[in-house]
Write a structure and sequence with these properties.
about 70 residues; alpha+beta; 4-stranded antiparallel β-sheet; 2 helices; globular
Length: about 70
């Protein structure tokens, strides 16, 4: 299990992210919000140009919803 997977599993238990998109980069949440485009833009601004990593975008589902993961 990767550290990003462990982080996602722990985030799903936190009510403050329910119904929101989170962007994960280098094992930490770098942006969050309800609009995936805004979250993506915020996350991309935090990328070091010499580091070619891509943020992981994930929507934390509300209690009765299925999740969405974009790689």
């Amino acid at each position: 299990m990767t550290s990003e997977t462990r982080l996602l599993m722990s985030l799903q238990n936190q009510d403050k992210y329910r119904g929101k998109w989170v962007a994960i980069l280098d094992n930490k949440v770098v942006a969050e919000g309800t609009d995936i485009r805004d979250v993506s833009k915020k996350a991309l601004k935090k990328i070091d140009n010499n580091n070619y990593k891509t943020p992981l975008l994930h929507r934390i589902p509300k209690k009765d919803e299925l999740g969405t993961l974009i790689l």
